[in-house]
Amino acid sequence: MIMVMTAIIQKQRSFFLNDVTELKPMIYKDVSEATGLDISTICRVVNDKYVHTSNGTFELKFFFSESLPSLDGDFISTTVIKDKVKYLIANEPKNKPYSDDKIKQLLMEDGFNIARRTLTKYREGLKIPVARLRKEIT
């Protein structure tokens, strides 16, 4: 457990020093290579385990995510993109919610290179309904 957590801290150093937006893409294989443990062992170690940080308490699985390329060529964790989608939807005008195309456009302006279909998949995974169902009449 200590070896795995040490590897996670080393790979996600900027997250622990700053905030959630600094989360880097990381897969089980990365920790496996750093520790010399099998990928299945890493999976068992992080399953149902939590860590308390200055940014809050997180399930260890939270630190593992795929990546998407940004417009500047870097790779961004899908977790960061999902958090940005949640933020945009939470702060959208309630009488005229953003369509997936509009959210995609806003993400592109922030440097996130994402397809509309991928955005729709993330929104559905976050259990956020389509724009017409989010509309509030005032």
Q: What's the gyration radius in Å?
A: 17 Å
Derived structural class: mainly alpha
Please tally the β strands and state the result.
Answer: 4
CATH topology heading of the largest domain? Arc Repressor Mutant, subunit A
Order of helices and strands: HHHHEEEEHHHH
What report would you give on this structure?
This protein is mostly helical and 138 residues long. It folds into two domains: 2-63, no CATH class; 67-134, Homeodomain-like (Arc Repressor Mutant, subunit A), CATH 1.10.10. The chain contains eight helices and four strands, in the order ααααββββαααα. The strands form two sheets. Strands 1-2 form a two-stranded antiparallel sheet. A two-stranded antiparallel ribbon has the order 3-4.
Which features does this protein show?
138 residues; 49% helix; 2 domains; 8 helices; Arc Repressor Mutant, subunit A; mainly alpha; two-stranded antiparallel sheet
Task: Describe the secondary structure blueprint for this structure.
Blueprint: H1 2-11, H2 13-17, H3 28-35, H4 39-46, E1 50-53, E2 56-59, E3 67-69, E4 75-77, H5 78-90, H6 100-109, H7 116-125, H8 131-134
Antiparallel strand pairs: 1-2, 3-4
Put the structure in a nutshell:
The chain has 138 residues and is mainly alpha-helical.
